[in-house]
């Protein structure tokens, strides 16, 4: 599927990129967002997300005083280069959507700065909006309209919109073009949401949990589409709870924890910063102290559960070789032997449990 040529706004040129390899399309500096009492002024300036969604509810929650003042984004910095896909990860409430809304220009930061294509997306919304596409976490469509009608209506407010049929085909909704939105499945609505975000052929695309609720096939099709968009030069920021999605798609990522960036970089680097594991059952008659000194094996920590010993290491090959040579020397078989490289999931869980500084 041809996803179309991009018009690259000159506004983005000349902004330094983080990796040094490209042009910084998005620049985030010391960004903060506070909800409630202290952040009310910023929230009062907040616009609704165009197609509704849960932002109104959130404002109401804040005004009802459920939580008077809360800093959801706590001084974060990052930048995204042109044609790069940057993923924001984190547990529920980590601050992903709060950050994304600032990038989308839907709210003003309490402090710090955001630049999208060289402009402030909140104050210079008119200059930024035509170049960005936004897929909210929960879009709101008129339920009586069909996807084709919804797209046609939205195309009327979009400069240089794709033809409606092309947008439907991109998200594989051609067969559902004339079904009322209220009769679409959750996954189909999600795809309609994506079609709306793609309608204006955006240079910068913001996707808030784009594949939540999609079945495996639809998820993979969305990944393929997102990859094609990125390869054609679209800069993409997405949030996701699927670590596999981040591993599949992201050039770089940041893991948020309590509104701060706990880890960031290329997926391989984030993973490499976390230890690998080797575990096995200590044979009867053997104890931890019978192993060679753990430090010499490159072990940085260990746990025992019953007879099972779990070693943490930054040098998996050295540790595994040392343990296997020891077992061979003693003539023993290590039952339940499991040698496991660090994964994004482990890195994520480590951060989510707040273990980063332990
Ligand atoms: N309008 C609001 N008023 C007060 N607190 C809010 C408001 N909106 C969000 N929060 C709080 O800010 C924190 C960050 O929320 P946010 O939605 O950004 O997290 P998230 O990482 O996107 O979570 P999820 O994965 O569940 O979507 C949460 O603790 C949330 O309760």
Automatic annotation (TrEMBL):
Chief localisation class: membrane
PROSITE patterns linked: ABC_TRANSPORTER_1, ABC_TRANSPORTER_2
Coiled coil: none
Compartment list: Cell membrane
Single annotated GO MF: ATP binding
Alphabetical keyword list: Antibiotic resistance, ATP-binding, Nucleotide-binding, Transport
Domain of life: Bacteria
Domain ABC transporter: start-end pairs: 54-283
Name of this protein: ABC transporter ATP-binding protein
Source organism of the structure: Streptomyces decoyicus
């Amino acid at each position: 599927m041809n996803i179309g040529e991009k018009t690259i706004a000159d506004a983005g040129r000349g902004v330094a990129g983080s990796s040094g390899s490209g042009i910084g399309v998005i620049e985030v500096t010391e960004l903060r967002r506070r909800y409630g009492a202290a952040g009310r002024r910023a929230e009062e300036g907040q616009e609704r997300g165009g197609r509704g969604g849960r932002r109104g509810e959130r404002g109401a929650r804040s005004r009802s005083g459920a939580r008077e003042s809360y800093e959801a984004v706590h001084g974060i910095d990052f930048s995204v280069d042109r044609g790069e896909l940057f993923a924001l990860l984190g547990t529920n409430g980590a601050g992903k959507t709060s950050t994304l809304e600032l990038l989308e220009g839907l709210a003003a930061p309490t402090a710090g700065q955001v630049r999208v294509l060289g402009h402030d997306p909140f104050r210079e919304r008119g200059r930024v909006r035509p170049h960005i596409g936004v897929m909210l976490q929960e879009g709101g469509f008129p339920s009586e309209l069909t996807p084709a009608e919804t797209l046609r209506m939205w195309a009327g407010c979009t400069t240089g919109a794709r033809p409606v049929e092309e947008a439907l085909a991109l998200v594989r909704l051609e067969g559902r073009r004339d079904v009322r939105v209220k009769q679409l499945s959750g996954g189909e609505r999600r795809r309609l949401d994506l079609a709306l975000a793609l309608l204006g052929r955006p240079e910068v695309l913001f996707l808030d949990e784009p594949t939540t609720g999609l079945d495996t096939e639809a998820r993979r099709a969305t990944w393929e589409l997102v990859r094609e968009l990125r390869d054609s030069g679209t800069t993409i920021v997405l949030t996701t709870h699927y670590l596999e999605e981040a591993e599949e798609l992201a050039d770089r990522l940041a893991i948020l924890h309590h509104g701060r960036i706990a880890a960031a970089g290329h997926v391989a680097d984030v993973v490499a910063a976390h230890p690998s594991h080797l575990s096995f059952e200590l044979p009867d008659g053997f104890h931890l102290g019978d192993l060679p000194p753990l430090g010499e094996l490159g072990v940085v920590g260990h746990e025992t559960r019953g007879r099972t010993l779990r070693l943490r290491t930054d040098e998996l090959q050295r540790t595994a070789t040392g343990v296997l040579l020891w077992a061979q020397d003693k003539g023993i078989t290590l039952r339940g032997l499991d040698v496991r490289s660090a994964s994004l999931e482990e890195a994520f869980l480590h951060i989510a449990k707040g273990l980063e500084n332990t």
